[in-house]
Amino acid sequence: MKRPRCQLLPALLLMLAAAGMTVDDARAEGESEFLAGRSKACPNCALANTALKRKDLSGVDLSGADLAGAGMHRARLPRAKLDGANLTGANLNKTDLRNASLAQAKLAGAMLYEAEASAADFTGADLTGGKMGRVRLTRAVLDGAKISEAVLTGARMDEASLKGADLSATNLIEVSLRRANLEGADLNNSGLIDAVLRDANLKGANLSEADLFGADLSNANLAGADLSESRLTRAILTGANLEGAKLKGALMPDGSVHQ
C-alpha cells in the first residue's frame, strides 16, 4: 500500500540530511544529470533560458519546471510531461510535441511556429500572445486554454477540442478547424478570414465582432452563438445550424446587414 505524499516528504528530507544534502542540492544534482543527458526526469527544475535546441527529449518529465525563455527550437518532445511548466517566452519553433502533456502550462508569448503538436494536451494552458503560425494542433486538447491575442495564421486544428477556450482578438486567418469542438469558446473580435470551420461545433460560442470574411461554415453548429456585429461577407453557411443565434448588426454573405 502506497504511503501518502505527506508521509513520504519527511522521510525524503531525512534521507537527504543523512546524505549531507539539502533539497536545493538534490534539485541542482537533478538538473546537472538532466543537462548531461543521463536523466530524462527533471520535474520542478530551474532551467530558465537553457539552450535545448535540437535535443531529443522524447518522454521527458519536466512537469512544473521553469523553462522561461528556453531555446527549444527543433527539439524532440513527443510524449513529454510539461504539466504546469513555465515556458513563458520560450522558443518552441518547429518543435515536436506530439502527444505531449502541457496541461496548465504557462506559454504566454512563446513561439511555436510550425511546431508539431498533434494530440497534445494543453488543457487550461496560458498561450496568451503566442506566435503559432502554421502550428499543427490536429486532435489537440485546448479546453479552457487562454489563447487571446495570439497569432495562429495557417494553423491546422482539425478535430481539436477548444471547449470554453479564450480566443478573443486572435489571428486565425486561413486556419483549418474542421470538426473542431469550440462549444462555448470566446472568439470575440477574432480574425477568421478564409478559415475552414466545416462541421465544427460552435454552439454557444461568442463570435461577436469577429471577421469571418470568406470563412467556410458548412454544416457548422452555430446554435445559440453570438454573431452580432460580425462580418460574414462571402462566408459559406450551407447546412449551418443557426437556431437561436444572435445576428443583430452582422454583415451577411449577401451584403445585407441583419436587423
SSE layout and pairings?
Blueprint lengths: L4 H14 L4 H13 L224
Explained architecture:
The protein is largely without helices or strands and 259 residues long. Helix content is 10%, strand content 0%. It has two helices and no strands. The chain has helices at 5-18, 23-35. The longest helix has 14 residues, at 5-18. It starts with a helix and ends in a 224-residue tail after the last helix.
Percentage of residues in strands: under 5%
> What percent of the residues sit in helical stretches (DSSP H or I)?
10-25%
Helix vs. strand class: little secondary structure
What overall geometry do the principal axes of the alpha carbons give? elongated
Structural key phrases:
single chain; 259 residues; little secondary structure; 2 helices; 0% strand; elongated; disordered N terminus
Quick overview:
By secondary structure, the protein is largely without helices or strands. It contains 2 helices and no strands.
